[in-house]
Design brief:
Oligomer: single chain
EC number: 3.6.4.12
Strand content: 25-35%
Number of helices: 3
Distance between the termini: 50 Å
Number of domains: 2
CATH topology of the largest domain: OB fold (Dihydrolipoamide Acetyltransferase, E2P)
CATH architecture of the largest domain: Beta Barrel
Shape: elongated
Number of strands: 4
Structural class: alpha+beta
GO molecular function: ATP binding; hydrolase activity; single-stranded DNA binding; single-stranded DNA helicase activity
Protein name: DNA helicase
Keywords: ATP-binding, Helicase, Hydrolase, Nucleotide-binding
Enzyme class: hydrolase
CATH class of the largest domain: Mainly Beta
Length: 119
């Protein structure tokens, strides 16, 4: 099975295009991940020659022959928040439970004052 992996867009600088690479999965690694999964792959980088065509230049591509695939989706789900920060967050929204827009305005005024008042 062949899959195409791509750099995570969130980790790229603004304006960068994510790079991609073909990965060859064999034996027990086949169907070990699905489209959209965040994975870690270990393997051997190999050259693969594309088919020859008359009067055309020879092309070679780099592929990764995988020998280990780990699906990381579960790691993204859990966010660790300090209990003090959680309490502060809950207290803030408890204070603004009758007027959540006032809470939003307070956040906007403190974090991005240039945006405050534009809505």
């Amino acid at each position: 099975q062949e899959i195409k992996i791509q750099e995570q867009v969130q980790r790229l600088s603004v304006g960068s295009i994510p790079r991609c690479m073909m990965v060859i999965l064999e034996d027990d690694l086949v169907d070990s991940c699905k489209s959209g999964d965040d994975i870690t792959v270990y393997g051997v980088v190999m050259q693969r020659w594309k088919p020859f065509h008359e009067d055309a230049r020879c092309n070679v591509e780099l592929v990764l022959k995988a020998n280990y695939v780990k699906v990381n989706n579960e790691q993204l789900a859990g966010v660790v928040i300090d209990e003090e920060v959680r309490k502060e967050f809950e207290d803030f929204w408890e204070k603004h439970k009758n007027d959540p827009l006032a809470g939003r305005n307070e956040i906007l005024a403190s974090l991005c004052p240039q945006v405050f008042g534009l809505y």
